Amino acid sequence: MPNFAYIVKDAKGARVEGVIKADTLDIAVDKLAKEGSTIISVKAASEGAFKGKLSLFDKLMFTFYKWRTGVSLRTLVFFTRQLSTMFSAGLTIEKAITDLEKEEKNKRFSRVLRKLSDDIRKGYSLSEAMQQHPGVFNPLYVALVTAGEVSGTLHTVLDELAEYLEKIEDTRRKVVSAMAYPVFILVFLAGVTWALFYYIIPMFAGVYGDFGADLPGPTLAAIAISDFIVNNVFGTILIVIAVVIGLFLIYLTDRGRYVIDGLKLKIPVIGGVLSNSIMSKFARTFSILMAAGVPIMDTMELTENVVQNAVVEGGVRKARVLVKEGYGVANAFRRTGLFPPTLLQMIATGEETGDMDKLLGKAAEFYEKLVDAVIDRLTSLIEPLLIVIMAAIVGSIIVVIYLPIFDLGDAISQGFN
Question: Fewest CB within a 10 Å sphere: which of 6, 124, 215, 223?
């Protein structure tokens, strides 16, 4: 007999989660209704904590699919906010989406909205229509819309979802803004280094060759690298492209992604920004899902898919298994060793008081402020630090080029003595 996970409110208004056995979903709903409970959500229980793993080819195809069909987070934020406002004003979902489709400037998203409107007109619910576009609406988005439809609070859920996406987009924008200048400097440094090896070093190599002088080891190494780059421009470009593609494919594998994401978290200063950003997203996602009435196991599974870091995903997955085995939520996360004490304390207090969604919302705000504080410090420190690094690298290359001249000067001075 199948199991069905349910969320109900009892006679006292308390939120109750559980699993009920029934032959069909309708029978499960009838059983709960006869008990006098107010039904929030009833759905087939998950068969296990782990889903089947995708092959590398499947991951590659899905990545290309999302790239081909996806839209920017900013576009999705604007759509959600507009849909929430129009639906709250009394328009039907079909009418609101049709109006938004007429005004949408993004042709790709306009086609998605047109298809949503057509599917809703055919009798599909909003969540069912959105499920047909996984490149645009991720499982979290669909799950929240589903919870809103089942509980009859879709207007509230859409409003909370819009605020959630706005905060996620704001945090991402701050992190990207903090990383933009360092990336620009590193690209500029790579260009300067390439110019030195391609144009400058060959000029000095020709002069030294005419003199027939014995060159220092570092200078010989620099000339050898320069010769390789000059004589193998096409090959060098192919190597760079191959390295980039290789890293991309490695990142698509479970093990490769775990290692790379782990290294990201260990980068000085930057790792702290990423970690706080992940914890903010984790707490914010958990909070909005719990507030929408999504079952705890589904909440943990959806949160796992949202944090976008393999190390933290593994921790959430492990905690989900522990919760399924009977551990408390806070204790399960504590046993992973990946979550900070402040967040664990918030979860534990939320379990005791029944206000986990509100407390996790507070935790999300706390970590967002930490991200802001670190980014403010980075902005003031990173510019001089990068200038020093760039000067050290370029200066080292120039010193290596001029080493034979220094040796020649020493030889001349010794001759005069």
Answer: 124
